[in-house]
Write a structure and sequence with these properties.
With 213 residues, this protein is an all-alpha fold. Helices cover 47% and strands 2% of the residues. It is built from ten helices and two strands. Strand 1 and strand 2 (148-149) form a beta hairpin.
């Protein structure tokens, strides 16, 4: 009995001795780099929808011609005159070199540097496309194709995206034949997005060119 009691006493002393040689680990706190016990950290991370939104401080232009230009410019380039995309399309309204040549512009460097030239180029191309689509505008305006009401401004916007020929093919096939650009944007989306604007001030002209001065 005495031996058993001595054994347990010795074991208790050994455990006490060993445990006294270790101290509980306390992390070092550097001033300015730690959070107090009474502090709360809140992480505010934007959602996917919020990161995809872009806010513009633009005047309200409604469905006017100015509103039409503004809406297309935002979609094409975020309104940046000097933007050149990965496919080589240039400026606020994203013109290709061949299209620029048809309206009388050959110096692309000057084109990129001149907002006035770009605005004139946009209007000249609209005049050409309105002439090319004059019969389609009369025939299809007001109809619904692929769930989208056809309007003059929608067709002109679609022609800006894929050319007047593509728009004709789309309409005549009742929406079955549709152009899609390198970014996956199709004619239907432009006809819908830019429909209902007032483009009556654009005079159809098959030979419209940009005045250089």
């Amino acid at each position: 009995m005495t031996k058993k009691w001595t054994y347990f006493l010795g074991l208790t002393l050994l455990i006490t001795l060993i445990s006294s040689g270790f101290k509980a680990f306390e992390p070092e706190k550097l001033e300015g780099f730690h959070v107090g016990d009474d502090e709360v950290i809140n992480y505010l991370v934007p959602t996917k929808e919020e990161t995809e939104k872009v806010y513009y401080n633009l005047p309200f232009t409604g469905k006017s011609y100015v509103g039409f230009k503004q809406a297309i410019a935002i979609k094409e380039s975020l309104g940046k005159y000097r933007l050149v995309n990965t496919f080589g399309y240039m400026g606020k309204y994203q013109f290709g070199k061949s299209t620029l040549r048809t309206i009388g512009i050959y110096n692309t460097n000057e084109f990129l540097k001149s907002p006035k030239l770009q605005e004139r180029a946009f209007k000249a191309l609209l005049a050409r496309n309105k002439w090319e689509l004059r019969k389609e505008i009369r025939r299809y305006e007001g109809r619904v194709i692929n769930g989208v009401r056809i309007t003059e401004s929608g067709l002109l916007a679609a022609a800006h995206l894929g050319g007047a020929g593509s728009v004709k093919s789309y309409l005549r096939s009742n929406g079955r034949n549709g152009f899609t650009d390198g970014f996956g944007t199709n004619l239907r989306s432009y006809i819908k997005r830019f429909g209902g604007y007032d483009t009556s001030n654009i005079l159809a002209n098959p030979k419209a060119k940009v005045r250089l001065d």
